[in-house]
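Protein in question quoted in full.
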Amino acid sequence: MLRALLGSVAVLAVVAVGLAAADEPRDKAPPIKPGSTPPGKPLRFDVEGFLKDYDRNKDGHLTRDELPAELRPAFDRLDANKDGKVTREELERGMAYLHPPRRPSDFVYVLIEMSDCDEDCAGEVQRAYDVLRRLDKNNNGKIDPHELKAAREQIVKDRVDYLFKQLDTDKDGKISREEARGMVRQNFDEIDANKDGFLDRAEMLKAATESHHAPSTRPGTGPATRPAPSERPTDR
């Protein structure tokens, strides 16, 4: 319920859309031609050009073996009438199936592509590298599930600690309804599992861990719920 409130990384998914993954063969997209798209506009899929490139026997449609190997898994979805061939019309309707699926880790490519401004951009890429490298506690060059789980739990713990630092004004180790702000106040009754009128660390940790779908904090509803850059666990 509070995971997004405490700094969810789900926003990374939105930047992966439309990304060209350059390193892995299975992430390579088919050739996309400009067609008649005006300069400065996004490229559109050139159906005629695609057919010309891959219709080897020039019969006006594509069979499964005519598609590039990495696109053949999409054939059944393209072949709407299941006649064993993909027509021009089916290609136009199903062109979205020709794009490779995007992965959350593709955000790395966005970061690299956007890092062409100055030394600060290179610093951001370096920071991402340093964060991931610190997850590898046994220095074996891999991030295993246990290391990832430990890092995830630490991030949640640190952010709950930050909320207490910001909200627990009387420093009694609990957040009262009067001290609560923003989404913490809005969801106070749900977080307060024992109904004692206070939020303790265990309740906050439970609320922050048990759900992936939480509303975002709205501007003007109270103090910031994300640590400042110098206080985030990834910067330590």
Summary: The chain has two domains: 29-98, 105-235. The chain has a mean pLDDT of 75. The radius of gyration is 25 Å. The first helix runs from residue 12 to 16.
